[in-house]
Amino acid sequence: MNISISSERLTFRLLHKNDIKYMFLLSSDPDVMQFFPSGVLNLKETQDRLDSFLRGYDEHNLPVFLLFDQKTGGFVGRAGFSLINNIEVEVGYVLQKKYWKQGFATEALEALLLWSKDNVDFNKIIAMAPTDHVASHGVMKKCGMIYCKEDLAYGVPCTFYQKINQ
What we know:
This is GNAT family N-acetyltransferase. The chain is α+β, with helices and mostly antiparallel strands.
């Protein structure tokens, strides 16, 4: 599997088991986690999530990446794939607040969707966000994802989008 992803302003690096400090920067920030049903995570919960992402890569070849600003080297966030209910592949992204509203989420999602065409063996890729997370809905639409349904995800009303993976 080719795990090399690039974009204009972002460096994508495969998540490693020792990346807890980066993951915790995101999961411990109340602003970043405001739309996540779990809310802020403690260190153990963050480690469990990191381990889950690593298992997704080991078991299903679905990677999660850390994102870095190519100009400054600063940590931007994480983005990648996960298997949902053993039948669908979800793409997701989480950015540090200082990188919001600068097009980084759109850039990351576009790069992941392009990469998935040759590297993810599923017919479609889904993404979801709570129904009131308007900014994330805009990112998905800009990247060519199509609205497919409203449903509960992790106990929260969400809007789902999809993109055929061809």
